[in-house]
Design a protein that fits this description.
alpha+beta; seven-stranded antiparallel beta sheet; 156 residues; 42% strand; 7 strands; 21% helix; Alpha-D-Glucose-1,6-Bisphosphate, Chain A, domain 4
Length: 156
């Protein structure tokens, strides 16, 4: 009979949300977010040095993934709602290598403001999620959307 090392994991859910004010139209931000994601997604967010490009298939059922060529890569999530240029909902998996196992449910909403748009990010994570991992995920999304996407959208 095979022997193994079994560990019982406590599971729970974590939810957080934040807003990013961007001085650009919702249409410009949407274009960058969904069609031109590779132009602003930083390489230090890739899971592998083999990644050639970060890609989004902008449609319901589309994949968001790291393309490493020849069919290789890492799937970040699947688009469950695509409502241009207002709302994007993505479901993804967190494998043990990235702090899981667990799932995340990311919602991004854009609405016009007097000086551009407001990007609302809402993320819920469930599974084996430590406080440190939840904080790391939130910090990562804040960097991606609040720094990199915002900078790209506001560039002349």
């Amino acid at each position: 009979m095979p022997t193994g090392n079994m560990t019982k994991l406590d599971t729970h859910a974590v939810k957080y949300a934040f807003d990013v004010e961007i001085k650009a139209t919702p249409e410009r931000v949407w274009q960058l977010l969904t069609h031109d994601i590779a132009t602003w997604w930083p390489a230090h967010f890739h899971s592998s040095e083999e990644t050639k490009q970060f890609t989004m298939e902008p449609r319901v059922g589309g994949m968001i993934f790291e393309d490493q060529g020849d069919g290789n890569g890492v799937l970040w999530g699947t688009i469950l709602q695509f409502d241009a240029p207002r709302r994007l909902q993505v479901k993804g998996a967190l494998f043990p290598d990235y702090g899981g196992p667990g799932d995340y449910h990311l919602s991004i909403a854009l609405s016009p403001t007097e000086h551009g748009c407001l990007l609302k990010v809402d993320d819920a994570i469930c599974g084996y999620i430590t406080d440190e991992n939840a904080e790391s995920l939130e910090t990562g999304w804040k960097e991606l959307f609040g720094e990199h996407l915002k900078r790209a959208a506001e560039a002349s």
